[in-house]
Amino acid sequence: MQFIHQHLIALMWLAWALYWLISARGIKSPVRRESRLSRWLHFGPLLVAGWLLWTRHPLWAPLSIPFMARSGLTFWIAAAVTASGLLFSVWARVRLGRNWSGSVTIKADHELISTGPYRLARHPIYAGLLLALAGTALIVAEWRGALAFLIAFLALWRKLRLEERWLREQFGQAYGDYAQRVAVLVPFLM
What we know:
Blueprint: H1 2-23, E1 30-33, H2 36-54, H3 72-96, E2 105-107, H4 124-140, H5 143-171, H6 173-181
């Protein structure tokens, strides 16, 4: 059981990352792409968040203080939250298809996807990732996990705001109508 507790979450994230790498092949060509600096303004903080979640470092001993007790039950609940978030992001990635990009882009023949998870949230990949990060932070159960979640949220929110602006420019009223119907991140909440 200890082995499962130590490695299950890492294996889930590894499987997710492997799928992400494989599915990135064959995407549409971009006609507009954010700058390299802009990409690093959200990717860099995500790396910091990952580092906080996956490593214990003496430098941040105060962040290693638990914010909740760990138990078998909390582990399995948090593992289910992590798995749900990762699966939700994969569902969104599958539905987005060749329109997907790791950076903010407008693709050749870009399509506005509003079905599947995109009828629940305008940015379901980010919603799923944040849910998975929240589950992982609960497993860590230390303040470094909470800080990692906050950093990731701010990085993804910055990226989301840029995407929103570009999608409104690309799709005009169609995106405005979609935004009126569908929540940004949390399904059924505007």
